[in-house]
Amino acid sequence: MRxxxxxxxxxxxxxxxxxxxxxxTALFPKNLxxxxxxxxxxxxxxxxxxxxxxxxxxxxxxxxxxxxxxQLEFPNGATRxxxxxxxxxxxxxxxxWVHLESGEKLLLxxxxxxxxxxxxxxxxxxxMLN
Length: 130
Fold this sequence. Notes:
mainly alpha; three-stranded antiparallel beta sheet; 3 strands; 39% helix; disordered C terminus
């Protein structure tokens, strides 16, 4: 396992929190790679269990509908097994987050299986691994 931090060049985390129409143009959906858009939808769906009862099958069904609607390709690696693994990892991190004391930090560690730049322009930023 490696820890990884992604810092887009000339951007901060607060740029991602701005209303969509006030974000830097590099973060507009038309400037992002398909993989980044698919990931955004998947991450939103992985949060479903915290809002309402759900299942891996329902997440996959909703992901399929969204990607068809947005004309995005379904990721090859999105299987029942991988979605379940992601849900379990998220649950583990959420439990750790709840138990953090004020001022403590939570380190997210994950294996980097593949790397592609997130934005289509030359301001792709850097990835730091340690």
